[in-house]
Each structure stands twice: as structure tokens, then as C-alpha cells.
Design a protein that fits this description.
The chain has eight helices and nine strands. With 254 residues, the protein is an alpha/beta fold. It has one domain: Spore Coat Polysaccharide Biosynthesis Protein SpsA, Chain A. The N terminus is likely disordered.
Length: 254
């Protein structure tokens, strides 16, 4: 990647973990790369194949020659959501990207919203969170039980974090690479999203949200691995409480 000049917009990579996503891998890559091409030549897609045992690897390898700014990173075995994102961040830092933008492969968030992230990046915002709970945001087709838990949990988390973010658990977000590089993130699964926000409280200066509409995972895809189990909820609440009490992380990278 060519280093941007000071007049260029911030560069960013979209980091997407995949595990056994053969049914949706191709459409994900095609749609995201199409949106990035529309935004200019300062963005790239990074897919981390997290030890898939189906045809995800073959599909992704077959797509690579078609897209110049599509990078594929892979594990031999499944290491989890957190490890996949940490690998993507390390690649972004080594490649000189200004921001890391995280999204899921199931396209429950619309790639068209990448333009809204890019606009906030140009303002220099440190942490940009997609939000279902601001004007213009929402949920469509999401089971009411899950929607209710999300809304109630995020009301509590927003109160505890006190950084003006109302959708604390949303995994569709962008953070400056320089800030992520200072974090010591340890979570293997989805609680990494809240662990990251907790550490951002001590590293970032500016936070903002953009409205998005979350849709339900398509029936043609495998069942989601995300659940609101007791362990996940306990970890979410734990990081929010530490943020409220302003208890800094034990370690951060220099």
C-alpha cells in the first residue's frame, strides 16, 4: 500500500473474520469490495479465515485474483473472533492503515454504511460505532427477545461507560489503528467488542455513532455462534463497571 499524503483521506481496512461461511463468503467479498472501490483507492478488505473446515478457504482463494485490495489471512485451526480481529489489526498496523473497521461476514449490517464511517474518519474521530439506538438506526427482522435484551443491556452499558455511545455492544465499528495497537486485548469471543471499548475509554479522546439498521442473519447461512449467555453478559457488565469506576487496564502496549 502506498503511504497517503497529508491531503488524502484516511486509509482504512475492513476486517472481517470468517468461520465456515461457505454459503455467504463470495457475496460478502463482492459486496464489500464494490463499496470500497466506490469510496476510492485508500481502503482495502482483510478477511481472516479462522480455521474453516468447509469450502470457505477455497472460495476465498478463488476470489483473490479478482480483487487487488483483498487480503486473505488464515489459520489452520479455529482460534475465535477475538484472535481473528487481533490478527487483522496487526496486519493493518504493519501495512500503515489509519483505521481498522470491523464488520461481520453475514452482511447483517449494510456495506453501504461504510461511506458513513469514511466521513467520520475524515473528521479524525478516534472511535466510530454503528448504532441501532440513535435517530435513523434500528433493527429489522431481529427476534424480539434478542432485540429487547440488546436495548436493555446497552442502556445499562451506555450509562456505565459515559462516553456518549448508546450501542456499546455493536461489532460494526472503526477505531484508529494507533489506538488499537496500544491495547492488550485478551477475549477470544464477542466480549472483545466491549473489552475494546473499555480500553478505548483510557486511550481515545473522541467517540461518535452513526445510525445503522441491523437485519437478521439469512436462513441460507449457518446458525450464528453468538448467544446472550450468562458468561457473555457477565463479561460485558464487568468491562462496563470497570469503565464506570475508571479502573485502568492492567497492561497496555507502549
Amino acid at each position: 500500500m502506498i503511504a497517503p499524503s497529508q491531503s488524502d483521506p484516511p486509509s482504512f481496512c475492513v476486517i472481517i473474520p470468517m468461520f465456515n461461511e461457505q454459503a455467504g463468503a463470495e457475496v460478502c467479498v463482492v459486496r464489500v469490495t464494490a463499496e470500497l472501490a466506490r469510496l476510492g483507492d485508500h481502503a482495502a478488505l482483510v478477511v481472516v479465515n479462522d480455521g474453516s473446515s468447509d469450502d470457505t478457504h477455497a472460495i476465498l482463494k478463488g476470489l483473490q485474483p479478482e480483487f487487488e485490495d483483498f487480503h486473505l489471512l488464515e489459520y489452520d485451526s479455529n482460534r475465535g473472533y477475538g484472535a481473528a480481529l487481533r490478527t487483522g489489526v496487526a496486519f493493518a498496523a504493519e501495512s500503515g492503515f489509519d483505521y481498522c473497521l470491523f464488520m461481520d461476514s453475514d452482511l447483517t449490517n449494510d456495506p453501504a454504511d461504510l461511506e458513513r464511517f469514511a466521513a467520520e474518519m475524515e473528521k479524525g474521530t478516534d472511535v466510530i460505532k454503528a448504532s441501532r439506538f440513535v435517530k435513523g438506526g434500528g433493527m429489522q427482522g431481529v427476534p424480539w427477545q434478542r432485540a429487547l435484551v440488546s436495548r436493555m443491556g446497552n442502556w445499562v452499558a451506555s450509562f456505565l461507560f459515559r462516553v456518549g455511545v448508546r450501542d456499546c455492544t455493536n461489532g460494526f465499528r472503526a477505531v484508529k489503528t494507533s489506538i488499537l495497537a496500544q491495547m492488550q486485548l485478551t477475549e477470544r469471543g464477542f466480549p472483545m467488542i466491549v473489552e475494546e471499548l473499555y480500553q478505548s475509554v483510557f486511550l481515545a479522546q473522541t467517540f461518535t455513532e452513526i445510525p445503522v439498521t441491523l437485519t437478521n442473519r439469512a436462513d441460507t447461512l449457518r446458525l450464528t455462534s453468538f448467544t446472550y449467555d450468562a458468561v457473555t453478559l457477565r463479561k460485558y457488565l464487568g468491562y462496563a463497571l470497570k469503565a464506570f469506576l475508571r479502573l485502568p487496564p492492567k497492561q497496555m502496549n507502549p
